[in-house]
Amino acid sequence: MARAAVLVPVWVPVVVAVLTVAAAPARAQVDNLAPVLTASGFLASLAAYTYDPTADTMYVTAYGNPAVVKVTNVSTPATQLPLPTVYETTLQLYYRDGNPNRGVATPLQGGLLLNPKPIGSNAAYSLALIADGGYTRYPASGTVDPAATKKFYTYNLGVAAIPGDGTDVFSTRVTLADLQSASGATSTSNSLARQFAWSGDGQSIYFTDSSAAYGGLWKLGALSGSPQRILNEDDTSAEPAVMPSAGGDRIFFSGGGSTGNVGGIDVVTHSGSTTSAREVAVSAATLSDFFEVSGIMPSQRVSSLTAVGEDLSFIFYTNASGTKAESRYPGIYRVDAEGRLSKVVNKTQRTAALGSTNLVLDRLQSRTVPVAGTSGTFQATQLLYREQGINTVAGATAFKPVDFNRDNAVTAADLALFVPQVTVRGQVQTDVTNLRFDMNGNDTIDWKDVQIVEGFLDYVPDPDLAGRIVPALPIQADTDLNGVVDFADFLVMQANFETTSRAFTQGDFNGDNQVSFPDLQPWINSYGFRSEVVGGAVPMAPFDQVAWDQFLATLTPPTVTLDVATGRQTQFQLGYRTIVIAAAVTKTGTGTLVYDAANTYAGTTSVAAGTLEIAAPDAIATSTLRVSAGATARVAAGTATTVAGLDLSAGGLVDLTTGAMTVTSGLSAAQLVAEILVGRGDGSWTGASGISSSAVAAEVAGGTPRAIGWLDHGNGAVSFAFSAPGDTNIDGVVDILDAANFLAGGAYNAGTPASWYQGDFSYDGVVDIRDAADFLSTGLYDTGSYLPRASVSAVAVVPEPATALMAATALALLTCRRAARTRHPRSQIRS
After folding, report:
1. What pLDDT is stored for residue 375 in this prediction?
2. Which fold has domain 410-555?
């Protein structure tokens, strides 16, 4: 139904009209939230607003009369002065093109922003652009007139003449007909009653529409008009934000559509001529994790956004009922350039500070305000927004995350305030003044808040982890939050071990309200980590090995399963910096698990599927390695590793690559050779089980003689490594020592059982002319290391021959080479 015109006598002194300022009701103390537009009692219903920082002035539009109001002295509430500049009668005549016979909708000025940069002859903050969700009908008709329906128009900030049709202050930029022309649609249904965002150069705006005909993201020249739809998807309902970048404007809006990110935040980049594909900026899953909610909340969405430097602030909306914890979340949040989320204010704080609030808060904008902090005055960002429940503009000061004492710095003093507030999980705070410590808006201060706080303390890994992949830990174990994870934190956990109703600061590192075995690994993972923000000068408590060993002795080892479904992951990426204690560890999944640490557990290591890559010498030094059929244990290239035992009875494969392995017990020399022969297969070293080497297989396929050498240490231990025939002690070189072993071992042509160390390079148990030929055929004698990479650590425990023997061996080697050439003139033996 068309709204009747509101007639205002021509003699009304509009220029100097002063409206009553409503008295603010008594409210609870929330140190970063308060009404900004205290003179809001004159508004029928606040629609949109914009702030001029150069004049400390706000312009406000209403869904009713007056249509536009200028408010001066915004930063001094006691002297705020509201002056109507446009009455609804004038606005409706502007809608009607001055023709009273046209019908119009109630004023729906949903977006109002001043130009932040000069445009043409208009200085910054001298011109406002208005988005309108209304419509105009043909004269004496109920049909919408697209050409007369004004969607965007500029406002010159002047006072509209009375009587007048508003053209002295308003200039039309875009009509519904223009949108129809740009989109090819004929529909008169659109959704434009919301705030837009200025482009990085300040010459254009971006706006969203969620209607079926005009849905998507649009760009509009502020003066030229000429709307362009740059993204055609009808779920873009949020008021957008813009961050300029080297590639163009990055425009953030509500998630969904082609990304499927319903309830999150999406982004596109517009270069000025092209628009990138829609991408996820903040996933709905990330928000659910931040809010600690399983799945999507009722009507979860981001309704308004604004950019402040590299921070993206946003209003989060949900209509979850008051019986659910999610009902506390509607409020303002932010995400920084590193993806770290934090709360600014939630619904509990809004209600406490402002009185009667509802779910509708939008029109998010920012300004800089002086704050009298505990250490002096500083400049801070204040996030302005429309608080519909009390019909005003409110301001939430966005202090630095973790700046709990409000001095514009994050120091140990902030953490000293925070630590006493941390409770067991889920304990709701009843004192609203403590909610400054609630980092995610659920009215609790617990494990999750510690997790968020520690994210802003910039913990860096223990220097001992240099060279390893260090995942982003979900939680540190700094119980006292002094900036360093050390043995003192372990002692706190130990003192509370096997007790319930415990908080993080008492050792509950995994957030289950008790201190038990699962809390041990988080401490192990983050031991030695130090905060770059507050931990630089904090001394680290010394490690007490005796106390540590005594503690481990009291534990019942658990079974551990490490699953890598596909791809490649290190043990740290699966949650284990090192595995200290385990009854058994089983690797599952077809992917590759990399053991890149010294693990100390004694239980069996089973490779049930896929590949276990051993990339540290002591990764399984105290464990028996068992490999199932179809699975592989691979030694990383150049790694000499030790295992307590090796079980390939199920048909598993060990791939040495260019590495080496020592088995300290349980594997006899005969069993070792049998497994090598299985891996050797037909001589191509491509066996599917046993002991083989993919590096040997590649060399042999290319015509280079390589094999797996082995040693029996005589103390129950055996070693085997990527080798060349002739390298009797498998140290990576063929030299005088190997010649001595070959010739002085007494096995040549003796027909007695022999080992690789004595010169049996063909694994047939004897040393004969074929082995001598293998020795000579490599051409490696006295040429240095033949290993493709850095030399593998020595695995042989063999005394060196006497100097006299070395000389004799050299002579014998020469004789042997001549004899071999005489007996085998056609053999291609390389010198």
Report:
1. 82
2. Type 1 dockerin domain (1.10.1330)
